[in-house]
Amino acid sequence: MNRIAVQKKGKVLGDLEETIMNALWKLGTGTVRDVLAIVERTRDAAYTTVMTVMSRMTEKGYLCRKELGNGSFEYKPCHSREEFYAKTSRMLFSQLIRSAGPVAVAQFVDALEEIDPKQLAILKERLKRKK
Q1: Its Gene Ontology biological processes (predicted)?
Q2: What is the Cα–Cα distance from 114 to 38, expressed in whole angstroms?
Q3: In the predicted model, is pLDDT for residue 10 greater than 90?
């Protein structure tokens, strides 16, 4: 995972990618067919579509896979949910700060109005320790 791209709706993952990641975080490991069974609970999807997206997610460094010997693969997330969002958040914030500097920081501060007060208190403590 060397760079991230923000998808439409301001999301890092597309809708199908997010469903696939959530499925594999729940399963631990799984084949395309295993993931497809979960995906189909909420949307119509073709086996080949899920396979293609999972292959691309492997190229992006989101998923790791090993060959099972029969031409199929077993996939797993390369990172835990927490690690994934920590890495993508850090990369996103770094890109924004490099590109937009003070504007990005100001928007981040404004967005803090939406955060839970307990989480805000934790953030304040972390900021104090960084000084």
Answers
A1: negative regulation of DNA-templated transcription
A2: 32
A3: no
Q: Kindly list the distances between the CA atom of residue 126 and the CA atoms of 86, 87, 89, 129, in Å, as whole numbers in the listed order.
A: 15, 17, 16, 5
- Residue 79 in tokens: 């990172």
Q: Which residues sit opposite 66 in a β-bridge?
A: 74
How far is the C-alpha of 120 from the C-alpha of 38, rounded, in Å? Answer: 35
- Residues ≥6 apart with Cβ < 8 Å to 105: 97
Q: Residue 36, Cβ neighbours under 10 Å: how many?
A: 20
* Percent of the chain at pLDDT exceeding 90: 66
pLDDT tens digits, one per residue of 81-117: 999 999 998 888 888 899 998 998 899 889 888 989 9
Cα atoms in the 13 Å half-sphere on the side-chain side of 75: 28
Neighbours of 62 (CB within 10 A): 23
Exposed e or buried b per residue across 108-126, where buried means at least 16 C-beta atoms within 10 angstroms of its C-beta: eeeeeeeeeeeeeeeeeee
Predicted confidence (pLDDT) at residue 33 exceeds the cutoff of 90: yes
